[in-house]
What we know:
It is built from one helix and no strands.
Amino acid sequence: MKKVIIASLTAMFVLTGCNTFKGLGEDVSSAGNAVSNTATDVKQKI
């Protein structure tokens, strides 16, 4: 019974970690797009 509980908790942490890193990757991508768009706008104004 202990092994089942430990396996369940491990799976929960692994799956939660994957979702967290996916969200972090999307945030970093959004920030990169914002910087790129700002650089393009500044370039066009010059």
